[in-house]
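Memo subject: From amino acid sequence to discrete backbone structure tokens
Keywords: amino acid chain, backbone geometry, structure tokens, three-dimensional fold.
Body of memo: The sequence and its backbone structure tokens, given next.
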Amino acid sequence: MPTIRDVAKHAGVAPITVSRVINNAEYVSQKTRARVQASIKELGYVPNMLGLSLRFKQTMTLALVITDITNPFWTTVARGVEDVAQSQGYSVILCNTDESEEKQEQYLNMLLRRRIDGILLVPACSSPKAVHMIQRQGIPLVILDRSIPDTEVDLVTADSEAGVYQLIQHLLSLGHMRITMLTGPKTVSTAVARANGYRRALADAGLPESSARIYWGSYTQEGGYQMTRQALQETPRPTALFAANNFVAVGMLQALREEGLRIPDDVAIATIDDIPSSPIIEPFVTTATQPAREMGQQATELLLGRVTGSLTDAIQHIVLPTKLTFRASSGQKAGS
């Protein structure tokens, strides 16, 4: 493996000159800089970034801590993060917590030991413990998607509560009075917010509070499947089901297929975010889609502003709108 001395000998300069070129110091002539860069390329020299980070107290690395990398929503968020980070010369470490607070803590401890420059965190739960741990170390932090009570921290999210409200209004306008909601755990802010949007839509339609049917579970396909099985035992059976995220919707569709129920003839459905594409999923699902890539981009821009010190304003809460797409799954008119 070539060393900095090998590069210096090849370029005919002192090792300190090579170091100055690597660190982009101004006091190196363009001619010398070009010769050193050519030697670096020809020899395949890779600078020791650990040493540089210790010297300049900056690693040029961000971390994205998400809950489920298998969900296309989060892969799209990650793409938005990478777009902005790479354009500014930063690398991104991706950590997947599987909605586990214990796994989240393990990752955060590792990242803090590595002196990461900044962290984008999708919290596994609503506890402020993780936020306080990061803030005590002075590491810039932006929370994505899920709010955490009792914290002063930058947040980028989508207004999924409003999206749910509009979707439930749509189902109500089609005549559905028995709409059951399948959502995530009570410890996750988005699950609670989406349930609030559901309840508010029913209340504004003049329906009694007792008409609300909410199943709390996990944001997974298995969670959606199990909650749907329970919901189908209701008497009378719901005429519409609402899934609080796309993976819940996939599990919901599996349970409906097993029961031989037709969509939307027997039951209408709607969800937050598009489900993964598949030739077996018909009809297309009515959704309120969150701007995943834009969320990742804006969160990274905000984080880099904190990292570089170019942004010193007060804590920001950025809320992006959802996009409604009405498709065949919600049907035209409710069954009797």
Q: What stands out?
A: The chain is about 45% helix and 15% strand.
